[in-house]
Amino acid sequence: MHILVTGATGMIGRKLTARLAKDGALNGAAIDKFTLTDVFPSALPPSAIATNIVTGDLASPGCAEQLIAGRPDVIFHTAGVVSGEAETDFDKGYRSNLDGMLALVEVIRRAGDGYRPKLIFTSSCAAFGGPFPDAIGDDFHLTPHTSYGTQKAMCELLLSDYSRRGFLDGIGLRLPAICVRPGAPNKAASGFFSSIIREPLAGHEAVLPVDDDVLHTHASPRAAVGFLIHAAGLSRHDLGPRINLTMPGVSCTVTEQIAALRRIAGDNVAARIRREPDPLVIRIVNSWPHRFDAKRARALGFTAEQSFDEIIRVHIDDERGGAIG
Questions:
Q1: What pTM value is reported for the model?
Q2: Which of 1, 25, 290, 311 has the fewest beta carbons closer than 10 A?
Q3: Could you report the per-residue pLDDT of 176-194, keeping only the tens digit for each?
């Protein structure tokens, strides 16, 4: 099996690739080749699996053609710019998030000769827009309130139409906030959900730009990789015509996040969070839904953590070797 991962140097792409390389298989099928691509050079831990590295912008002429030339069987499309960056840089957001997707599916369509790869796309809960019910069900409408959410919703429609026409076999995953993200903060508006846990655990101060009563749904990076791998094993018969799914997660307030941190790491660690309101972040986050009733995804076998305490412990185990700084 030949696997293509776009956005391979991003957090999800990197963790997904490492997991697949370690397993050597995807849902029981042996992997014999990786193609990894991003605008930054990709790297894979030492592995016996042949790996092709392509550094480039998916929306640039010729890049998608180069990626599809080897006819990958399964494509994990995780590339794109994050929410805050897409909102502040309109052109970059549409180029990376929409033009890149369109370039990819068009090259697949033009390949012909019966080529019909499995394409798993990472969408976002930002594709939804208010006014919101208490919990977002599977039938809720897509009326995004940000450019990022609009780009994700447009990509979902492309995925559905190209799948309906038989050009590819697609599935879109609307991810909750992925938390706790490792590494340095990025430009995602949701980044503070991770930083108020990650930085205090590392002995550093973290800034909280929103009110403590902000409610959102979270899943760990480990769960996100699990979503992608599980999605690759689902058939069109399993999914039916509605191929874009809202993923499960843990719904909690910032207050409840901090309480979980305090239970696990103590008062001194939780005290490293400083309140500093940011109007742009507040506006973006307030446009997102808060809680999901992900019945279809759960019925199809997608699973996530059951508590925010569990999410914190995943971060401590996976990124900190079990230690609290």
A1: 0.94
A2: 25
A3: 999 999 988 777 788 999 9
